[in-house]
Amino acid sequence: MSGEDEQFENTDAGASQTEPTNTSRLKPGSLVMMKGFPCKVTEVNTAKPGKHGSAKVITKGKDIFTGKGYECTFHAGDDTPAPICSRDEYVLLNIDDE
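^ that's the sequence the OP posted. Answer follows.
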């Protein structure tokens, strides 16, 4: 060790960037986290309860940043994280050639 003070960056767990949402309330256009990625739901199907447990909610969605498609199955009535997103639009006034 050279005796220098080491500096570490603070990191965030990301828990504050999501909020819980009920899987039974998902519909096309909803936002939900699928496999760790923020997705916009494109299709929702519900499978009836069978001999192995509760009803299932089968969702398909597209990543809001890359457009990659994901499919996820949730238990009906469970809570799942949904990303907190906001959309800001700006007006471009000028572009310099430099």
